[in-house]
Each structure stands twice: as structure tokens, then as C-alpha cells.
TrEMBL record:
Molecular functions per Gene Ontology: uridine phosphorylase activity
Catalytic activity: uridine + phosphate = alpha-D-ribose 1-phosphate + uracil
Highest taxon in the source lineage: Bacteria
Enzyme class: transferase
Pfam family, one: PNP_UDP_1
Protein name: Uridine phosphorylase
Annotated Nucleoside phosphorylase domain residues: 30-226
Length: 254
């Protein structure tokens, strides 16, 4: 890679234009939450932490989880920022990526406080369509996904299996009312296509990771349930369990 940034690839001395870090700063294994505050929340669960700070929505730390090197990097909300994070992480040496985040279930059987490890992500994200083609499912790495389900079970936590739907929209695209009362009806279509949950990034993570040759899977805490209208007000425990499940899955495999 050139030392001098070019318009085509604006890295400087190997440092990417968006993530707050450079060569040698990223571990092969990466957890990708959406919210930068979740990087801070999980920080005390790692040892030997190097904090590279934050640029825009991208906060990044690298440390050790039970002795193994691990990076946690936030990717923001939605496809565009998530694609940026994944591509820059891949340039910096990431090999396995797990999206850790939240979703709402579309079926009553998947209760708030439980987890979903999708086999695949469908939906209507622009980045997903760009990388995978409109209408195609993006598949998780089967071994990594099964490792996450096994790890959850070992920890006594319930991890469901199924398809998740991702969308670029939190309000209209997820059938939430706008201030003038306008409501859409996209969730039935996702459920009819086989999805059991909805959120905003899994289709992006799985399709971009596949194109980059990264092993990737998603581990989603169930923050809401659209069938029962239940909403988890405090999801700190769920978020911290995401790190325990993911860490166990990543490092048991080796
Ligand atoms: O919990 P995170 O990873 O932020 O994910 C979910 O929450 C955000 C919306 O509030 C979207 O990014 C959605 O996918
Ligand atoms: O309902 C929800 C919950 C989390 N994330 C979403 O995108 N939607």
C-alpha cells in the first residue's frame, strides 16, 4: 500500500481514513457492535487493553479475552458505516468477525433477553444488495455460527437459530409509526420470507465479509419482540453476555 493517500485508496502510512488505528493494532478476531458506547461497556471484560479512541461512530480497542487477542470495534448504525468498518478491519488484518448487537423478534417464541444466531440474513439493505444482489440471502459461516450456539448453551443461555432480516430503516422500514401516523407493513413480508428477527446490519456484515474472505457470523440479543410488543428496557446484561458467548466460541475452536 502506498504511503501517500490517494483518492482511490486514502490510507496514510497504512492508517485507514475512518478507523482510529493503524497497522498492528487490530487482532485477527474482531467483535463488531453497532454502538461505540458498547465498546466502553465491554472494555473492563478484557485485559491488556489498548484504547485507540474514536473517530465518528468508530471506537476501537484491542486487548485480551481470557488471554487471547481480541479487538472490539463499533460500526455505527446501518450499512454504509458497517461496510467501512469491515473493509478497513480487513485491510488491518481481521480474519474472523462477529457482529454483536440487538434485534427485535418477529415470532412470539423468541423472548426478549434470549439470543439469535442467524444461519443467514435476508432483507433490503443497499450494501447487502450491492455485495450479494437484491433478494439473495447472505449466509453466516456455519462453523462459527454453530460455535456461538454451542457456547451459549454451555453458558446456560438460550440461543435460537433462524434467518434474520436487515433493513436500512428503523422507523418506516420496521413498521413504526411516524409522527403524522403514517405506518408501513414490511415486517409481515420479512416473516413470510422466513425471518424470525429484524435489525439493520447482519445482511451487510455477512455479505461484505463473504466478499472479503472473512469468516463471519452474527450474535443478536433480543431487545424487543414485535409479536408480543415486549421491549427490554435494560439490556446491559444481554450485551455483556454477547462478549462471553462470542469469546467462548472464538477461542474454543482453536
Ligand atoms: O444493537 P445494535 O448493534 O446497535 O443494532 C440495532 O440497534 C440499532 C437501532 O437502534 C441498529 O443498529 C440495529 O441493528
Ligand atoms: O427493534 C429493533 C431492535 C433493535 N434493532 C433494530 O433495528 N430494531
Amino acid at each position: 500500500m502506498a504511503d501517500k493517500p490517494t483518492a482511490r485508496l486514502p490510507f496514510k502510512d497504512g492508517r485507514p481514513p475512518h478507523l482510529p488505528c493503524g497497522p498492528g493494532d487490530v487482532a485477527a478476531d474482531v467483535l463488531l457492535p453497532g454502538d461505540p458506547d458498547r465498546v466502553a461497556l465491554l472494555r473492563d471484560m478484557l485485559s491488556d487493553v489498548q484504547d485507540f479512541g474514536r473517530k465518528r461512530e468508530f471506537a476501537l480497542i484491542t486487548g485480551r479475552y481470557k488471554g487471547q487477542p481480541l479487538t472490539i470495534c463499533s460500526g455505527g448504525i446501518g450499512g454504509p458505516s458497517t461496510e467501512i468498518a469491515l473493509v478497513e478491519l480487513a485491510y488491518l488484518g481481521a480474519r474472523r468477525v462477529i457482529r454483536i448487537g440487538g434485534m427485535s423478534a418477529l415470532v412470539p417464541q423468541i423472548a426478549t433477553g434470549s439470543y439469535l444466531v442467524p444461519d443467514a440474513a435476508i432483507g433490503m439493505t443497499g450494501v447487502g444488495a450491492l455485495y450479494t444482489g437484491q433478494g439473495f440471502a447472505a449466509e453466516a459461516d456455519a462453523d462459527l455460527a454453530q460455535g456461538l450456539r454451542d457456547a451459549a448453551q454451555d453458558l446456560g443461555l438460550t440461543a435460537h437459530r433462524g434467518t434474520v432480516a436487515s433493513t436500512d430503516s428503523y422507523y418506516l422500514g420496521q413498521d413504526r409509526p411516524l409522527p403524522d401516523g403514517t405506518e408501513a407493513a414490511f415486517l409481515d413480508g420479512f416473516a413470510q420470507a422466513g425471518a424470525v428477527g429484524v435489525e439493520m446490519e447482519s445482511q451487510v456484515v455477512l455479505s461484505v465479509a463473504r466478499a472479503l474472505g472473512l469468516q463471519a457470523a452474527c450474535l443478536l440479543g433480543v431487545h424487543g419482540n414485535r409479536a408480543t410488543n415486549d421491549w427490554l428496557v435494560d439490556y446491559e446484561t444481554t450485551q455483556r453476555n454477547l462478549l462471553h458467548i462470542a469469546g467462548r466460541a472464538l477461542f474454543r475452536q482453536q
